[in-house]
Amino acid sequence: METRPPRKSFWMVPFTIHATRGLLRDQSSRRKTMTVSLVVALALLIGGLTGLRPWLDPHQHPWRFIVYWLVCGWETVLVLLLALFDLLLVRAQTRAARKALREQYSKEPAGDDPHSKPDP
């Protein structure tokens, strides 16, 4: 009898983790994702408060109402977390650049320093 290799049942999980890491590491794709998510969250908010109000009546369709506003909240939290992550990365990059500049300019030759005293 031939034995088959074990089938991977959760193939989507590693793919999702890998795709998310790539998305978070690239600044332009991270900011594009923030922009698209913000537009989606605003469209959900405006649609839920205006045109979809009869469709989302909480007395007639409570589950539809709850799921819709949970999705809207999820999009909003996603945008906030991506913005916070981007802010922290920009601060870290600025700190690293400032440190590199400080190290570069602190290694000047001793003869070029205008405040140094000449030897007698």
Q: What would you say this structure looks like, in words?
A:
With 120 residues, the chain is mostly helical. It has a domain of 79 residues. The chain is built from three helices and no strands.
Described by strand count, sense and barrel closure, the largest sheet is: none
Average pLDDT = 82
N- to C-terminal distance: 95 Å
Radius of gyration: 27 Å
**Contiguous runs where pLDDT drops below 50 for at least 5 residues:** none
Structural class assignment: mainly alpha
As a percent range, the share of helical residues equals 55-70%
Strand content: under 5%
Number of H/I helices = 3
User: Quick one: how many beta strands?
Assistant: 0
The general outline is flat
Order of helical and strand elements: HHH
Write the layout of secondary structure elements.
Layout: H1 12-25, H2 27-49, H3 62-106
Helix pairs in contact: 2-3
Descriptive terms for the model:
flat, mainly alpha, 120 residues
Concise synopsis of the structure shown:
The protein is mostly helical and 120 residues long.
